[in-house]
Amino acid sequence: MTYLLILTVTVFTLLAMLYVYQTRQQYSTIDAFLTARGTLGTWLATATIFASIMGAWILFTPAEAGTWGGITAITGYAVAQAVAIMIYALLGPRMRYLAPHGSSLVEFVYYRFGRSMYGITLVVGVFYMAVFLCAELTGIALALNIVMGLPLWITALLIGSGTLIYTTYGGIRGSIFTDAVQAVIIIPALLIVFAVACFRSGGLGTLLSSLRDIDPSLLSMGHRGGWDFTLSLIIAIVAANLFHQGFWSRVYAGKDVSVVKKSFLFAGLAIIPVIILAGTFGLMAAAGNLLDVPSAALFEVVLSVAPFWVLLVLLLLALALVMSSADTLINAIAAVFTVDIARFYPALSSSRLRRWARILTAVICVTVIGVAAQGYSVLYLFLLADLVCAAAVFPTFYGLYSTRLTGRSAFFSVLSGIAAGSLIFPDPGFSRGNLLFSFVAALFIPAVLSLILAQCSRPAVDLGSLAEKVHDIKY
Predict the structure, then answer these.
(1) What's the number of CA atoms in the CB half-sphere (13 Å) around residue 337?
(2) Is 333 exposed, middle or buried (0-12, 13-18, 19+ CB in 10 A)?
């Protein structure tokens, strides 16, 4: 399995490097390095979006949700993640219309709202993506430690280094190419693991019968805890993913608006069955009394019932998942900072700007590898990032349509939402507070304030003028 780990990482890295080298003349600008603007057709765009969101979390959180929330929580997780992607089919074309030469969300916010909203959007987006990236490498490192006893730092170093090599060299092109390859692997590999595990556990009939005896609420769509979880997820996941620069890069990578709409819709639909399949392992674990570590329910089921070769398929699946999301996140964070460098130092040549982009990519990746090697839990940080994203989401994207919402009003609305949500946000031990009510307060208070303040203001910006302002990257 160790050899398979090294081989798989090496193959993905070499394939990406070869593709980048062969297309070096076609994509020679810094803009192509960061966005691959206007190059993707519907199916390639769908594949890269799908693979980018399908991280190692698929192997942990849906199954864990299934162990206590049953089919309600699993279905809710699938719907929340699908909506988070499909909403880009609405907002993406609007962004391309207002800022056809743009590169990032924070760049648009800078020109639409000014420095205050730009600052909070920058911090929110980078913090969320950095936590996401750490969670991906930490998750795969812990998984391989459970399956094969591999030290955390070895897994983090191998996967992080491979991803670093081709993202530093090729930027988003390497990420898109490997996403296409990995998207072809993910669904068949998951189907194989699921089919074998289900068969070796006695089949669906045995699974359902065991669950009815152990806890019939797991099979009920009326599970109260599952619905609270679902509503929390819809707010948190949709809000957080809208600040994911990797998806905004892919909004610009599509050949036209039609491609953007179709690709995000198709990717969102494809996510639903994948999450449901992964979540079903939680029900298998509950039925087989394999809940020593609920977050590792999928691995516990496979280790207990499946033959060794299925572990190899699971390893390939895990690597495809983590590398497809990690390279997107690394490139996305680097893109945000590179656009800012281009804005504040407009005299930099394209070659020097590209060099800075590569340096930033390397620094980000090395830092994340170091954090992931420690095996820290980042769940609470994730939830904090989700809270801030929930507070910022309505004022930020209302600015795509409203000419009256000022930067100060938007900033005040966001801070009010953060403050309100923080008052009832759970503590690290979850002994007090309420996560759902916290997210609801963080979402709706800024929304109401933004609508009221916008109605009390005169037009603050000409949205039509943004097309000429938002173009920081040199072509």
Answers:
(1) 21
(2) buried
In a domain, 388, yes or no: no
136 located within any domain: yes
- What confidence tens digit (pLDDT) does each residue in 169-198 have? 888 888 888 888 888 899 899 999 999 999
In-domain check, residue 71 = yes
pLDDT at 239: 92
pLDDT in tens, 67-91: 878 888 888 889 989 999 999 999 9
> pLDDT digits over 308-364, tens only?
899 889 988 988 899 888 888 888 888 888 888 877 777 777 778 778 877 877 787
- Whether 429 maps to a domain, the answer reads no
Burial 250-267 (b: 16+ CB within 10 A, else e): bbbbbbeeebbbbbbbbb
Domain count, the chain: 1
Residue 226 predicted with pLDDT over 70: no
Task: Give the DSSP H/E element, type plus range, for residue 442.
Answer: helix 435-455
* Conformation bin of residue 99: beta by default, left when phi > 0, alpha when psi is -120 to 50: beta
Structural tokens at position 158 = 């191998």
Render pLDDT for 266-280 as a digit per residue (tens, 0 to 9): 999 999 999 999 999
Here the contacts of 273-278 (C-beta below 8 Å, separation 24 or greater) are 273/78, 274/54, 274/58, 274/186, 274/187, 274/190, 275/58, 275/62, 275/74, 275/77, 275/78, 275/81, 276/62, 276/74, 276/75, 276/78, 277/190, 277/191, 277/194, 278/58, 278/59, 278/62, 278/63, 278/190
Backbone angles phi, psi at 404, to 5 degrees: -95, -20
In DSSP notation, 261-312 reads HHHHHHHHHHHHHHHHHHHHHHHHHHHTT--SSGGGHHHHHHHHHS-HHHHH
* CATH number of the domain to which 182 belongs: 1.20.1730.10
C-beta of residue 104 within 8 angstroms of C-beta of residue 126: no
Which phi and psi angles does 431 have, rounded to 5°? Answer: -90, -15
**Can you say whether residue 29 is alpha, beta or left, with left for phi > 0 and alpha for psi between -120 and 50 degrees?**
beta
Three-class DSSP category at 254: strand
Under 8 Å between Cβ of 393 and 363: no
Could you give phi then psi for residue 398, rounded to 5 degrees?
Answer: -65, -25
Domain span holding position 163: 2-23+40-382
Q: Are 394 and 450 in contact (CB under 8 A)?
A: yes
Give this prediction's pTM.
0.90
402 in Cβ contact with 451 (< 8 Å): no
| DSSP of 1-69 | -HHHHHHHHHHHHHHHHHHHHHTTTTS-SHHHHHT-TT-B-HHHHHHHHHHHH--GGGGTHHHHHHHHH
